[in-house]
Amino acid sequence: MSCLRGARPCLHFDGAIYGGDSHLQGVLRKHPYVMWAHVWQAIAYAELGRWEEARAEALEIMRISPRFTLKAEKERMALQDQALEERYLADLRKAG
């Protein structure tokens, strides 16, 4: 099973999240202006049903990058699993 790592939560392609929340919080403490960490943190919060926190991350994304769009994120994300990609984009959309 593959896992996305780095500044992203450990999101397995089956949609499970393992340790992403604490990992990203560490990244964000050291590098609060890394927008992609906020993107993946918003997705992680949305996947966990933590909508207030997901919305706060969405606001931070827009503060850091006012021109951020889901269309551009879809092009950048380019996951092989289209259903999972749409799920993550839906999470971002719901987060705000």
How is this structure best described in words?
With 96 residues, this protein is mainly alpha-helical. The protein has one domain: Serine Threonine Protein Phosphatase 5, Tetratricopeptide repeat. The chain contains 5 helices and 2 strands; from the N terminus they run ββααααα. The protein has helices at 20-30, 35-47, 51-64, 70-77, 82-95, and strands spanning 3-4, 11-12. The protein has a two-stranded antiparallel sheet. α1 packs antiparallel against α2. It is globular. The model is unreliable at 1-9 and 12-16 (pLDDT under 50).
List the main descriptive attributes of the protein structure presented here.
96 residues; mainly alpha; Serine Threonine Protein Phosphatase 5, Tetratricopeptide repeat; two-stranded antiparallel sheet; 4% strand; disordered N terminus
Give the secondary structure arrangement, pairings included:
Elements: E1 3-4, E2 11-12, H1 20-30, H2 35-47, H3 51-64, H4 70-77, H5 82-95
Antiparallel strand pairs: 1-2
Helix pairs in contact: 1-2, 2-3, 2-5, 4-5
Distance between the termini: 30 Å
Helix coverage percent of residues? Answer: 55-70%
Low-confidence stretches: 1-9, 12-16
Q: Tell me the fraction of residues in β-strands, as a range.
A: under 5%
Total strands: the figure is 2
User: What is the overall silhouette?
Assistant: globular
Q: How many domains in all?
A: 1
Any idea of the CATH class? Mainly Alpha
Strand order of the largest sheet: 1-2
Mean pLDDT: 76
CATH fold-type name? Serine Threonine Protein Phosphatase 5, Tetratricopeptide repeat
Sketch the topology as an H/E string, one letter per element. Answer: EEHHHHH
Largest sheet: 2 strands, antiparallel
Number of helices: 5
What is the CATH architecture annotation? Alpha Horseshoe
SS-derived structural category? mainly alpha
What oligomeric state do these chains adopt? single chain
Radius of gyration: 12 Å
